[in-house]
Design a protein that fits this description.
By secondary structure, the protein is mostly beta strands. The strands form two sheets. The protein has a six-stranded mixed sheet. The longest helix has 10 residues. The N and C termini lie far apart (about 35 Å).
């Protein structure tokens, strides 16, 4: 485990699992539902502050609650919902001991692999993070990440 920052209540580590994207000659971090990333946001009075976000999807939610994943995907598409997302994690101060947590480092613009797809982490309104699905396109030595149209 490569710890890059340590705080009183948690550590921030580099991604531990990656896949190699051959055309881009790049190792892509792999995430699963429930993994939590720590990403920096600028603060007016405190420099950069880390915000935590948890990976989720329609399929992982359906599996967790013993629902049919196919029905859940159909319903989400019909209602115009995203199939993959990042949920902001709340922070609270408590008076009792809590176990130390570990979060995975990420930055805006990073390409990640989640549930069989590649996504770019983009800044969204209200200090949120949006997952934009991308794919590799090109030939020879000229390969680029392109946004996938839905």
């Amino acid at each position: 485990m490569n710890i890059i920052e340590t705080f009183a209540a948690y550590d921030v580590i580099l991604p531990t699992e990656t896949i190699h994207q051959c055309e881009m000659e790049q190792d892509i971090p792999v995430f699963k539902a429930g993994d939590v990333i720590a990403i920096n946001f600028p603060s007016r009075s405190h420099g950069m502050l880390r915000h935590m976000f948890r990976f989720g999807s329609v399929v992982s939610y359906a599996a967790q609650y013993n629902e049919c994943a196919i029905d859940a995907i159909d319903r989400a598409r019909r209602l115009g919902h995203d199939l993959h997302w990042l949920n902001a994690q709340s922070v609270s101060i408590t008076s009792h001991e809590q176990e130390r947590r570990t979060y995975i480092h990420a930055e805006f613009g990073d390409i990640v692999f989640f549930e069989g797809r590649h996504f770019r982490l983009d800044r969204a309104s209200n200090q949120n993070v949006k997952m934009v699905e991308v794919y590799v396109e090109g030939s020879g030595d000229n390969w680029n990440w392109m946004v996938k149209d839905h």
